UniProtKB/TrEMBL annotation:
<keyword id="KW-1133">Transmembrane helix</keyword>
<dbReference type="InterPro" id="IPR037185">
    <property type="entry name" value="EmrE-like"/>
</dbReference>
<feature type="transmembrane region" description="Helical">
    <location>
        <begin position="109"/>
        <end position="126"/>
    </location>
</feature>
<feature type="transmembrane region" description="Helical">
    <location>
        <begin position="250"/>
        <end position="269"/>
    </location>
</feature>
<feature type="transmembrane region" description="Helical">
    <location>
        <begin position="138"/>
        <end position="157"/>
    </location>
</feature>
<feature type="transmembrane region" description="Helical">
    <location>
        <begin position="281"/>
        <end position="303"/>
    </location>
</feature>
<dbReference type="GO" id="GO:0031969">
    <property type="term" value="C:chloroplast membrane"/>
</dbReference>
<keyword id="KW-0472">Membrane</keyword>
<dbReference type="Pfam" id="PF03151">
    <property type="entry name" value="TPT"/>
</dbReference>
<keyword id="KW-0812">Transmembrane</keyword>
<keyword id="KW-0809">Transit peptide</keyword>
<dbReference type="GO" id="GO:0015120">
    <property type="term" value="F:phosphoglycerate transmembrane transporter activity"/>
</dbReference>
<dbReference type="GO" id="GO:0015605">
    <property type="term" value="F:organophosphate ester transmembrane transporter activity"/>
</dbReference>
<keyword id="KW-0813">Transport</keyword>
<dbReference type="InterPro" id="IPR004696">
    <property type="entry name" value="Tpt_PEP_transl"/>
</dbReference>
<feature type="domain" description="Sugar phosphate transporter">
    <location>
        <begin position="108"/>
        <end position="408"/>
    </location>
</feature>
<dbReference type="InterPro" id="IPR050186">
    <property type="entry name" value="TPT_transporter"/>
</dbReference>
C-alpha cells in the first residue's frame, strides 16, 4: 500500500451515514479503523507499509466521495485515505500559562493589594475620628453600607459599571455571606469605638489562626505541621499585646475577636459563592453591601435608635464648649459630615478592591494579605492619633506580625495556597 489506498469491491454501491466504522471488518486488512478528533499530519513518506500485527490504532484523515464500485478511476474519483499510527498524532493545542503571564498576574494582584491597603488606612483614620466624636458604631456601620450601596446603584444606572445578572439562587447563596459580613463589620466598628485602632488591628492580625482552625474543624481540611507551628507566634503576640494594652477594654477585645471569626466565614462563603458565577468581584461586593444593609438597618434601629443618635449628636456639639458661636457650630457640623462621608466612601472602596483580589486568590491567601495590611494601619494610626505604646506591647505586635510572615512563607513553600 502506498500513500493512496484504492478500494474496489464486487458489491453494489454503498454509502455511509456514520463514520464510526466506515470499512466492513471482513474486507479490512487490519482491525476496525478508529478516527481521531485531533488535527491530522499528512504522511509524506513513500512506500509506507502497514504492519497488520501492530497494536496501535490507525486513523483516516479524510473521506471524500467514499463508495464501493466496479467503475474505474476515470469513471469515478477514487478515495484517497491517508493513515498514520496513533502515536504520531500532533498534540492538542492547549493554553499554557507562560512565565510572562504569571508575572503579569502577580503584578496585578500586587497592585490590588497595595490599593486595598492604602484605602484601608484612610478608612481607619476617618472611622476613628467619627467614632471619637460620635461613638455610635451601629449607625456608623449602617451609613458605610448605605453609602456604598448608593454609589453602586448610581454606577449601574449611569452605565459606568455593568449591572450584574442575578437570580434567586444567587441571592440565596449570598445570604450567609451577608450575615457574616454584617456581624464582622459591626463587631470591628464596636471594637474601634472602645479601644485604639492599633489594638483592634493587632487582635485582628490573628485572623489566619481562625482561618486554619475553621478550615480544619468545620471544613475537614488538613494542614502540615509547619502551618500549625507558624500560628503560635501569631497567637502569642496577640495575647502579649492584649495583656500589656494600656487602654484595654473587654468589649473592644471581644469585638475584634468576633470580627475575626465572622470575616473568616465571610471569605470562605464568598469564595464558594463566587465560584462558577458570572458576577465579578466588584459587583459581588455591591450586592453583598445591599443585602447587608437590609439585614443591619433594623438591628441598628433596635440597638441604638433615632433618639439615642439625636442625644449623642447634641452631646457631641456640647463638647465644643458653652461659648461657641453659630459659625463654629456650622464648621463642626460640616467637618463631621465630611468625616462620615469619607469613612463611608473609603470603606466601600477598600472592600470593593479586596473582593476584586479575592476573585483572583484563595481565602487563606486573602487572610494573609488582610493581615499584612494591618502593619501599615497600626503604624499610621499610632503616628496620627499619638497612641501611647509600651515596649512590651510593641514587642507583642512585632511577634504577631512576624508570625504572620512565617505563616505566609510556609504556605508559599508548601504550595498550599
Amino acid at each position: 500500500m502506498n500513500n493512496a489506498m484504492f478500494s474496489s469491491l464486487n458489491q453494489s454501491k454503498l454509502s455511509f451515514t456514520s463514520f464510526s466504522n466506515p470499512l466492513p471488518r471482513k474486507h479490512s486488512s487490519f482491525n476496525a479503523l478508529k478516527f481521531s478528533p485531533l488535527p491530522i499530519i499528512q504522511n509524506s513518506q513513500k512506500g509506507l507499509n502497514f504492519d497488520t500485527t501492530s497494536q496501535k490504532p490507525l486513523h483516516i484523515s479524510s473521506i471524500e466521495s467514499f463508495s464501493f464500485s466496479r467503475k474505474t478511476q476515470q469513471e469515478k474519483p477514487v478515495t484517497v485515505c491517508n493513515a498514520y499510527e496513533a502515536d504520531r498524532s500532533r498534540p492538542l493545542d492547549i493554553n499554557v500559562e507562560l512565565p510572562d503571564d504569571q508575572a503579569a498576574q502577580k503584578i496585578k494582584i500586587g497592585m490590588y493589594f497595595a490599593t486595598w491597603w492604602a484605602l484601608n488606612v484612610v478608612f481607619n483614620i476617618y472611622n476613628k475620628k467619627v467614632l471619637n466624636a460620635f461613638p455610635y458604631p451601629w449607625l456608623t456601620s449602617t451609613l458605610s453600607l448605605a453609602c456604598g450601596s448608593l454609589m453602586m446603584l448610581i454606577s449601574w444606572a449611569t452605565r459606568i459599571a455593568d449591572a450584574p445578572k442575578t437570580d434567586f439562587e444567587f441571592w440565596k447563596t449570598l445570604f450567609p455571606v451577608a450575615v457574616a459580613h454584617t456581624i464582622g463589620h459591626v463587631a470591628a466598628t464596636v471594637s474601634m469605638s472602645k479601644v485604639a485602632v492599633s489594638f483592634t488591628h493587632i487582635i485582628k492580625s490573628g485572623e489566619p489562626a481562625f482561618s486554619v482552625l475553621v478550615s480544619k474543624f468545620l471544613l475537614g481540611d488538613t494542614f502540615p505541621l509547619p502551618v500549625y507551628l507558624s500560628l503560635l507566634p501569631i497567637i502569642g503576640g496577640c495575647a502579649l499585646s492584649a495583656v500589656t494594652e494600656l487602654n484595654f477594654n473587654m468589649t473592644g477585645f471581644m469585638g475584634a475577636m468576633i470580627s475575626n471569626l465572622a470575616f473568616v466565614f465571610r471569605n470562605i462563603f464568598s469564595k464558594k459563592g463566587m465560584s462558577g458565577k458570572s458576577v465579578s468581584g466588584m459587583n459581588y461586593y455591591a450586592c453583598l453591601s445591599m443585602l447587608s444593609l437590609l439585614i443591619l438597618t433594623p438591628f441598628a434601629i433596635a440597638v441604638e435608635g433615632p433618639q439615642m443618635w439625636a442625644a449623642g449628636w447634641q452631646n457631641a456639639l456640647a463638647q465644643i464648649g458653652p461659648n461657641f458661636v453659630c459659625q463654629k457650630t456650622l464648621n463642626v457640623k460640616g467637618r463631621y459630615a465630611k468625616w462620615v462621608a469619607a469613612q463611608s466612601i473609603f470603606y466601600h472602596l477598600y472592600n470593593q478592591v479586596s473582593y476584586m483580589s479575592l476573585d483572583q486568590i484563595s481565602p487563606l491567601t486573602f487572610s494573609i494579605g488582610n493581615t499584612m495590611k494591618r502593619i501599615s494601619v497600626i503604624v499610621s494610626s499610632i503616628i496620627i492619633f499619638h497612641t501611647p505604646v509600651q515596649p512590651v506591647n510593641a514587642l507583642g505586635a512585632a511577634i504577631a506580625i512576624l508570625g504572620t510572615f512565617l505563616y505566609s512563607q510556609v504556605y508559599s513553600h508548601l504550595h498550599v495556597i
